């Protein structure tokens, strides 16, 4: 708190209009500022001061306030937007007409010494924008109460600069222009375009930017500064009358304090007196009294702002009411106020939050959530998609014989026969092969379980329990408990799925009414083999006689288990015997009696021999049996696995999650874990 100096004895109270509506807008400014106007997305009526560097913006603002309070220098001084809320107050006998300022970032601290206000503006600017010449778009909010001001809200924006200085980036001009345009493009913003009289109005940066934001010129006021330093014999009459650049709200001409006045600490009140004398004595300006002087500018700004507020107030009120409905609905979703239940204790609040969360979780799984998405599947619908479109279709696309070759089946049949030849399809190789194929159903079944588990985790994270957003620590602990709870539900489901597959593998029910059976399989296999032989025979008849003889020889072939044709072996043996006979025709009896027949050794690894028609029939029949039984078991698995997952994981979570959360989290709170501490509450922006 600063000490109150003696107020200026010459200060006179001023009349004000709009004293009822402008303070309301100022209060809204204070309410919305902490949230941020960008996130709130609402435009409040205010006046933005735009001008090039050293155009006299600061002098105009200080003249409107009647006090020196802005940083000054030869370089850029305004480096952060300064929101200046002027509040007219009546003269109080206790305060003796004192004026004071209050910063938004220093609430409840009043500055009666305006030189301290200047230092605080500079310090706050340096805190964010640095100690050199950098700029920032973060606002400084200052309210000044005085009996010598009119109610209005002004925003002093950084002056437009061309050449970077200090630590300014090379694109400083573009950044400042972007910052200015972000303010003046708002429909409810009145633009105060400041241009010095000793420059060409047609080339004014302020008017050029104002025209971009306000092409019709319906919310732009022009201010012509430094009228007293124009070349002798010239005046700004055409400027003030809007003949050069017309504006609907017109122009006001002012005389700024000179640098000499500032150096010698001449008061603003003295400067206003000299300004009044200048316009009164000037042969041109004395006839434009309504367009000249700081008092006229203050009055015009106050009137225009008040009229503008009254014009936009109905729509603004409707917009705020609509926004309040949305915000109140969101606020109710966060639960009741902590203080309102202080006497009941945090335990009641915790139980209420857990109950609401479990209700929202169950509703999302069942598809009864109030926030139903229309852009993508969510919640329980994704679980249904996993069952129907991923698991069921995935099993349908699997061929039970895709990894079984004819050689595999032939080897299995021959190994099952041992040293004998089977007349019919043996059961042992069928059971061995079908168990091997049924075992393949385990992996996709467990994958389906994992997919549903992942979806349940996603649902637990995406449940719109807005109350939990207030308590991030509670949310983290809740996610941990739910994660472990769902993981524990996976284990019995995994065991059950594994048992189902093992049960199907342990007992092959060849008496199933839908199973094709051996006789039917042999019948169908014989038909298929006969059809293929007819096609092959027709093809052979079309070949040459040599090919036909060869085909005839082949038709009566028998196959050795070692893979060589018997006829070939006989021919080879005949040739061998013939050669031996001629070679030994005149040999002695001793030599003939000593000759023996030697067989070749069996190979270490026996491969399947080429099949006979009978063996081909058994291979085809085995495939038919495999597909028939596999389809029966597959349909059973397609039905049982989703049921197991729903029972042990999904429905179990719906039934037991609430009790588990109470047991874990409520007990944790009872043992001293402060889950709802104010230190753990997050501020939502």
Q: Total strand count, please?
A: 9
The run of helices and strands is: HHEHEEEHEEHEHEHEHHHHHHHHHHHHHH
CATH class of the largest domain: Alpha Beta
CATH fold field value of the largest domain: Rossmann fold
| Unreliable residue stretches | 1-15, 544-588, 678-685
Relative helix content: 40-55%
For the termini, the CA-CA separation is 31 Å
Describe the 3D structure.
The chain has 685 residues and is α/β, with parallel strands linked by helices. It folds into two domains: 22-320, Rossmann fold (3-Layer(aba) Sandwich), CATH 3.40.50.300; 347-508 and 619-680, Four Helix Bundle (Hemerythrin (Met), subunit A). It has 21 helices and nine strands. A nine-stranded mixed sheet has the order 4-3-5-2-6-1-7-8-9, with helices on both faces. The protein is elongated and about 145 Å long. The two termini are 31 Å apart. It comes from Manihot esculenta (Cassava). Residues 41-314 form the Dynamin-type G domain. This is Dynamin-type G domain-containing protein.
Short overview:
With 685 residues, this protein is α/β, with parallel strands linked by helices. The chain has 21 helices and 9 strands.
Keywords:
685 residues; Rossmann fold; Four Helix Bundle (Hemerythrin (Met), subunit A); 2 domains; disordered N terminus; motor protein; nucleotide-binding; Dynamin-type G domain-containing protein
Give the SSE layout.
Blueprint: H1 22-32, H2 37-40, E1 46-51, H3 57-65, E2 82-88, E3 100-103, E4 110-111, H4 114-129, E5 140-146, E6 152-156, H5 172-184, E7 189-196, H6 205-213, E8 220-225, H7 237-240, E9 251-253, H8 259-263, H9 268-281, H10 294-333, H11 346-366, H12 380-396, H13 406-417, H14 427-438, H15 442-462, H16 472-506, H17 518-541, H18 545-555, H19 566-583, H20 589-594, H21 613-670
Parallel strand pairs: 1-6, 1-7, 2-5, 7-8, 8-9
Antiparallel strand pairs: 2-6, 3-4, 3-5
